[in-house]
Design brief:
The protein is mainly alpha-helical and 227 residues long. The protein contains seven helices and three strands. Strand 2 and strand 3 form a beta hairpin. Helix 1 packs antiparallel against helix 2 and helix 1 packs across helix 7.
């Protein structure tokens, strides 16, 4: 069963509502896809591309709602994406040998994966220096218990995720790999981290509070009509 993103108790109500009604919907889909492949059901596809695309979309959306609202101001979308990923993704918890520098990691996520996947099915505007891969932990998809381990851990979880990190760059071949399971855990931590930033939360709440009030009023009107 999908476990909702955990955020600090100080998180504004409107931000909590946004995460519960929007962000958790994105991540619940990823939870389901991480159950694949499933040999017993004859499903050999692992949804690597869809997992990565959904998680990259989650960064993009959060960057204009939680990191630097308002959401209708799309100027500097790349800067906001990289800023959120650089400052709040848990790079310091990456295993040895994986990209742990926030500046480098955020640039790789945006320039190597997000932009090409959003606009050209992964084809690059310029020839990449080496191969680009989206990987998954070997074997069948994760069990519910293994996913719960990811979803409830505030430190990089062990078990099947083991030593897998988010981004791996092969220095000999310049091959860049993005791992779906590690990325999923990191994105969940990213939401927790930004919700711990009081300044970002004040700005996000100022944008989201009127939307929450309007939603509350709509629900109240619905109740009046139903009664």
């Amino acid at each position: 069963m999908y476990r909702k993103v955990s955020v600090p108790a100080t998180t504004p109500r409107s931000v909590r509502a946004f995460i519960a009604t929007v962000c958790d919907v994105y991540l619940a889909d990823v939870h389901a896809m991480l159950r694949l492949p499933c040999s017993d059901a004859g499903i050999t596809q692992a949804c690597n591309f869809a997992v990565a695309a959904t998680l990259l979309n989650a960064i993009s959306g959060a960057s204009v709602v939680l990191y630097e609202p308002p959401a209708n101001n799309i100027r500097g979308a790349g800067r906001k994406f990289k800023g959120l990923a650089r400052e709040f993704y848990p790079w310091r918890l990456e295993p040895t040998g994986f990209v742990s520098d926030g500046d480098r990691g955020s640039r790789l996520l945006y320039n190597t994966f997000r932009n090409p996947m959003s606009h050209a099915f992964g084809f690059q505007e310029k020839n990449p220096r080496g191969p680009i891969n989206i990987t998954r932990v070997a074997g069948n998809g994760f069990t519910e218990q293994e996913l719960e381990d990811i979803e409830t851990s505030t430190w990089r979880p062990g078990l099947r995720l083991g030593g897998a990190g988010t981004l791996l760059v092969n220095q000999a071949t310049n091959e860049v790999s993005l791992n779906g399971e590690a990325f999923y855990w990191g994105i969940r931590e990213m939401f927790n981290n930004i919700c711990s930033d009081a300044n970002r939360m004040r700005a996000a709440a100022a944008y989201l509070d009127p939307l929450l009030v309007q939603n509350d009023q709509n629900q109240a009107n619905d109740r009046i009509v139903l009664h």
